[in-house]
Known about the structure:
Elements: H1 8-24, H2 31-49, H3 57-75, H4 81-95, H5 102-118, H6 126-147, H7 157-181, E1 206-207, H8 211-216, E2 221-227, E3 238-244, E4 246-248, E5 251-253, E6 266-269, E7 273-279, E8 289-290, E9 293-295, E10 301-302, E11 308-309, E12 318-324, E13 327-330, H9 336-342, H10 351-358, H11 365-378, E14 382-383, H12 394-402, E15 404-405, H13 407-420, E16 425-432, E17 435-437, E18 442-446, E19 450-458, E20 462-466, H14 468-472, H15 474-478, H16 481-484, H17 500-521, H18 525-536, H19 542-571, H20 574-587, H21 599-609, H22 614-629, H23 635-647
Parallel strand pairs: 14-15
Antiparallel strand pairs: 1-5, 2-7, 2-18, 3-8, 3-16, 4-5, 6-13, 7-12, 9-12, 10-11, 16-19, 17-18, 19-20
Amino acid sequence: MINRLLNTQHLKWLLISLAVVLATHIPNLPVWVIISSVAFGAWRYLLDKYQWPMPKIWALLPITLLICVGIIFTFKGFFGRDASLSLLVVMCALKLLETKNLRDYMLVIVLGFFLVGNLFLFNQTIATFGLSILPILLLTATLIHISYKNANNPKPIIFNLKLAGQLLLQAVPVMLILFVLFPRIPGPLWGLPQDANSGMSGLGDSLQFGNISNLTKNSAIAFRVQFKGNAPEQNQLYWRGPVLWHQEDRSWTMSSNKIGLQAESLKVSGKPISYSITLEPHNRLWMLMLDMPTLIPSGAKLTHDYAVLAEKPIHNRLRYEGVSNSDYQLGLNLGERERTLSLQINEGENPKTVQLAKTWLNLNAAEKINTALKRYRQQPFVYTLRPPILGENPVDEFLFNTKRGFCEHYATSFVYLMRAAGVPARIVTGYQGGEFNPNGNYYIVRQSDAHAWAEVWLADKGWVRVDPTAAVSPERIESGISDALDENDELPLMARADYPWLKKAYLNWDSVNNGWNQWVLGYDYKKQLDFLKKLSGKDFNLQEMLTWMMGIIALIMGLTTYFLIRQQKAKLNPSQRVYAHYLNQLKRAGLMPNNGETVLDFAARAAKVLPNQQTQILDIAHRYNVITYSQSPNPALLQDLAQRIKQLNIPKQS
Length: 654
């Protein structure tokens, strides 16, 4: 049975199904892998169409070796998500050149199902789930099509697709029970390959001219925030990330842990702000929190300058609670090491900026800050995503020549000015603002909301936030980046306000996507226990979850079987129901009719196997045919047939 040869129709079903699977992976595969896979599929089709002989192993072996070399050169080895997927795809296509019988086809179909599952290694959104349905449906329909024994009388395409859809729908209740009750184990069962986290965007641990302006061109979501009460004003939504102290050439970096800076004291007043954040994976440690965090998530750690870090790089979507205060005093006492580091500038660079700062030496710290901000307001500075390239002394060129820049230009030049004027200062990077989604009552913060601002230290106030960008473009802080930039700037479509209908549709979709993230992807061990407790009013342990899961699945399968059998019986007419008893008796001897086999042909075959009941078997078949093809029903004949079938006593095969 498993070695039964298959025909052209079976091959077409298989090739079409695999082509759809391949299409879903196009963004994840190198071009040469896609072309090779299509070529192998076309080759297999031509072999069948022109009845050419299948290629021998000596012809396939060099092709296999060539593919392996291509994988090694493309991905620098076999290991990793991308390399493994490419190897599996092209080898599955190559396997088509060996497919002859049912066993080969079933193996390729199983590989197809596995490739569909690989989609979720790249993306786990609801769109990916929807994309996976069509290839699963086609693979299931192909499996149904190749399972029919009568190749000369194939079932229609609609029949195969409809049956595949019914099978998948029947599996939904079991899938839901497994999803809700299958025990969630804290932490992953296995780790993803290293390259599974490549391509993630987000804030870096350093700042250079152009870093954030490039990130702003990305409309990907950085995180979502839901406040437990009234949200702060837009101009107070500063999401704190890395704090940068050290300047080296054109880069600003965090302070080294080896320096051993003391933890800064924090005094807060006013009403605390509680919120929950769903952070998208960004392959770094930063856990963004509203300025200034007072209660951080468990397992996270707080740096000396109040940046919040995870224990390890964030590779998966993370949901956590936070509490912050907008009224605070941070670091009232500035240590000598902190003072030295926050006044550091490189000798001999940016002489014009240093000279300008020296003219402010007779001013106090607050006056120096106001004088610098006044310069940004009164001179023709422009807030733009396309600043010119700066030369050897970048701060001088920006402040005195180009006067065109993004937030990193203003934060960097302001901090440099303050340090040159003797005011301790540092750069803080993170995000500013957010777009409110009324459908889910939460804020969306995108990569395009990335921002940099300054903190200066004042003797009576500690570290105080100063945002020089607000002096040049107050719209950026008050309304968001879409209102601040010129229409010629390359702002992502989802960050613009040009198309309100598109924005509304996107927000509706994002609320659905957010629900998927919270209740499907975010259904972890804690959420499972909380949900089951809310459902039943008691705490569940592992044994109880497994018992309920298996019990409910058994009940569903039992009910499904009962209704299917009842439905099948309901479809039979009286003579067919009587004949079904006859078939059940012959089944005891291991006899069942083949697809397309007539009643008389099956009776003749059964009579040869059971010579003692030969006369009865042939007589029953003949009488059944008479009843079936008679123009009007005859209850007497039907009753006589039922009696003869009842008298048929076939022993069970040992």
